Amino acid sequence: MAFTLIVFIVVVAAVLALAQIVAGVIGLGAIVGAVAAGALAASSVHVVMEWEKAVVMRFGRFNRVAGPGIVFTWPIVEFYTVRIDQRVAVTYFGAEETLTADLVPVNVDAVVFWMVFSPKKAACEVEDYGSAVSWMAQATLRKAIGRASLAEVACRRDQLDAELKDALEEKLDGWGIDVIDVEVRDIVVPRELQASMAAAAVATRERDARMILAEAEADISDMLKDASANYEGDPEAMRLRTMHLAYESVRASGGTLVIPSAFSEGFTNPDAADALAKAAKKG
Question: Is 26 exposed, middle or buried (0-12, 13-18, 19+ CB in 10 A)?
């Protein structure tokens, strides 16, 4: 506005000075002519910022995209409709109480990062491209949530982000808008469902823990069967195992280990070792 006002004042002053030189007097006609010339000049010179583009129309039809810097247009014949900001914009959007595929209402908040790559399309194809991005993102988010279960929405945020980005790119490309990224910020489940979901998660973890314990017990029993088969018929191996167990017990206790006489006979008596091996196998 300051630049336009300065142009208007300079042109009016120049016209009045010219009238003074030519006619020697400044009359009403000179004043009216100076004001008209100033208004035309002010409407013909525009300043467009570095991050903007001006869409220039001529007789109502698209003519060119101009800027940044000083942009000149023909008075009356040309005018620019809008300045398109080509910086990256951030739009917040959300979906409140949207039903998932398993009929659970959730509240989802997200943001979309976008920018205008075609000022012509943004000015001519859509009335308010900023509001269009917001409403389109919200509608796309609701559709994506409705196609997925609650577990998929909560656990697969990256997949949901990618799905939203692809869908928005396809729809906004015709408006000259490029989607840079979509990020889901928060997913809120109703309070009355949180307790039941927590109980289900605890039950699932307990089931998994019991399955892992059962698998470990099965592996241990298989290994014990293999060890028993190896010791069977080999009293020397059984004696060495007995000595190893005694050594480990002494080292763990840090002192002297008192063992029964029947157990100690396994170190010297082969027959006792055989009996101990059979007893171990039965046990």
Answer: middle
Express each pLDDT in 222-261 by its tens digit: 777 777 776 666 676 667 767 666 666 666 666 565 555 5
Q: What is the dihedral sign for C-alpha 146, 152, 153, 156?
A: negative
Cα–Cα distance, 278 to 220 (Å, whole number): 20
pLDDT digits (tens, 9 = 90+) for 98-135: 888 887 888 889 999 999 999 999 998 898 899 999 99
Name the stretches of the chain with pLDDT < 70. Answer: 192-202, 230-234, 236-238, 241, 243-283
CATH class of 89-189: alpha beta
**CA-CA distance, 140 to 119, in Å (whole number)?**
24
| DSSP tag of 25 | S
Domains of the chain by residue range: 2-82, 89-189, 196-282
Backbone phi, psi, residue 190, to 5°: -55, 145
CA torsion angle 82 85 86 89 (round to 10): -130
